[in-house]
């Protein structure tokens, strides 16, 4: 497989070919994920939960993100690397520019930010400086305290309209990718159809352009309650490589996510 770029994802969106994204936090898993056909590796601040054993992503620092991005870069082959800016590390445009620079120099090719239209000026500034962005809408784990827990977002008319408008404004500001988490499937489908940039979903139905899962979740290593949108691909696989390859194939052939992995309005 050729190296994945933003152009690759745009071509896949235009042709209707689904793409995949999995988290990785170290060189070994990055090599495994990138050699099984996954287009994007997300160095997510979810490392706070699955690597550090924390209750949320809030304690994750920029030093953590830079360290793990460096590790992933060393193991990656063909995938595009996308890294999170952690909690309160994008409070101002200037702070975000500095932190995005660190992540890009560590090996990230796209910077992921959690938030809506309030980030438009920052996204515009990053785009002008040649730094691609992915904007995370819906359930944003860094804001889980404000959201009242891990709940589906965009179920009422007002919040759905706000998310649609945020998506439009962020694309206009220069965002390169959108990521929708725990969003009703019909709303995610509408956002995807309206956007000319690729849209990734997690718990957002099957109509987004791509799908992302936390690697530990899809390998059946989740502790405690399993999120509704997760499928254990290790259940019928003999190796992690086989499980990842099946995930990629099932997304591309429309078998995952199934209706039971999404949410209604």
UniProtKB/TrEMBL annotation:
Mg(2+) binds at residues 45, 84, 114. Pfam families: Pantoate_transf (PF02548). InterPro entries: Pantoate_hydroxy_MeTrfase (IPR003700), Pyrv/PenolPyrv_kinase-like_dom (IPR015813), Pyrv_kinase-like_dom_sf (IPR040442). It is an enzyme of class 2 (transferase). It is found in: Cytoplasm. 3-methyl-2-oxobutanoate binds at residues 45-46, 84, 112. Its EC number is 2.1.2.11. It catalyses: (6R)-5,10-methylene-5,6,7,8-tetrahydrofolate + 3-methyl-2-oxobutanoate + H2O = 2-dehydropantoate + (6S)-5,6,7,8-tetrahydrofolate. Belongs to the PanB family. Catalyzes the reversible reaction in which hydroxymethyl group from 5,10-methylenetetrahydrofolate is transferred onto alpha-ketoisovalerate to form ketopantoate. This is 3-methyl-2-oxobutanoate hydroxymethyltransferase. It comes from Parendozoicomonas callyspongiae.
